[in-house]
Amino acid sequence: MAAMDGDPTRLSIRVVNSVTKLDAAAWDACALAPEAAGNPFLSHGFLKALEDSKCLGRGTGWIPQHLVAEDDSGAVLGIVPMFLKSHSQGEYVFDHGWAQAYERAGGRYYPKLQVCAPFTPVPGPRILPRPGPLSSHVFDAMVESMVKVAADNDISSIHVTFCLREQWDALGRLGFLKRQHYQFHWRNDGYKTFDDFLAALNSRKRKAIRKERAAIARHGLTMRALSGAEITAQHWDAFFAFYMDTADRKWGSPYLNREFFHLLGGSLAEKVVLIVAERDGRLVAGALNLRGDDAIFGRNWGCVENHDFLHFEACYYQAIDYAIAHGLERVEAGAQGEHKIQRGYLPTPTYSAHWIGDRQLRAAIANFLDRERPAAERDMAALMEYSPFRKGDE
């Protein structure tokens, strides 16, 4: 128990090993607060689907160790989605070099604590106090508890990945090291149609995108965006085959299983936007997106037939179409991919914060990050030179 400064309320913080140990409404009052803008990836339903499908838990290297802050009455005042990790897979912020260096020096990097949305490089708040007058106190207390859990259990490090800039700055003030990188996001500048978006591009890029989109019809492909009850078991079966094909080629070991997609289609059906491509009545490709209050988030893609420009259509242009039609502010199309720039997706900074227990390792990583941050800024500035948007009188 810890008394909160300036307030008689007493706060208790405990660790739970499953999201199911907490009422869904209490969890989502924190995870889906306005600051998260309806971002579904830390919702009770999303994490429960991962747990129930055994994508998280024993044998996966992802052991839930969520922090829960409660007042004396048992009301939930905050949560931290946290996992004890025995590897660095499925995170998209790479620390393999840190782990290898520490272990070569005789240290033990794993297990570590990861505060994140599993398998999901989507930015959002990571320390999740319930909105209210105590939220800043709860934030600080939960961060203090995270560090205490790590220190008391001889855990090397804590990694808060894809957090918002405000939380990144706050964690820096609380002693975390600050890392910066970037993704490619599309932003809706009040467009009413896809042609409005194209009109904002220079002539050469506008013609290239029209050519790519026209090729879809020539291939005999029909595109559809499905949500809710429109998505049947047949669609999920087909999409899982697409996903497995991509996973086998890119990763070798897929993170998600068929049961997860079944559960996702049940608990978060209205948040799912499944883009499918059909040819001669057969499903041949799909792109899985989830929708928040102000954005659509691209997650997984796959196909069983290869056609020129199909990946761009399913993952980028269809998402833009959907965002425009539904008045969403942006499309976040996942990690990596400089080719996205030519499709209107521009570099956008992403942030992570890291607590390192060992002083020597911390000093080495701090030195590395002091050089990496300005390099990331330079990279983003250089990439912006390739922006397809019109400049001046173009």
What key attributes describe this structure?
394 residues, alpha+beta, Aminopeptidase, 11-stranded mixed β-sheet, 5-stranded antiparallel β-sheet, globular, disordered N terminus
Structure described in brief:
With 394 residues, this protein is of the alpha+beta class. 37% of the residues lie in helices and 25% in strands. It folds into two domains: 2-182 and 349-384, Gcn5-related N-acetyltransferase (GNAT) (Aminopeptidase); 189-328, Aminopeptidase (3-Layer(aba) Sandwich).
Folded structure, characterized:
With 394 residues, this protein is α+β, with helices and mostly antiparallel strands. It folds into two domains: 2-182 and 349-384, Aminopeptidase; 189-328, Gcn5-related N-acetyltransferase (GNAT) (Aminopeptidase), CATH 3.40.630.30. It contains eleven helices and 16 strands. It has helices at residues 24-31, 44-52, 96-104, 135-152, 165-173, 194-199, 203-218, 233-250, 258-267, 310-325, 359-384; strands at residues 2-3, 10-16, 62-64, 66-70, 76-80, 82-85, 112-115, 128-129, 157-163, 177-187, 221-226, 272-279, 282-291, 295-303, 330-332, 346-356. An eleven-stranded mixed sheet has the order 3-6-7-9-16-10-15-14-13-12-11. Helix 2 runs antiparallel to helix 9, helix 7 (203-218) packs across helix 10 and helix 8 (233-250) packs across helix 9. The chain starts with a strand and ends in a 10-residue tail after the last helix.
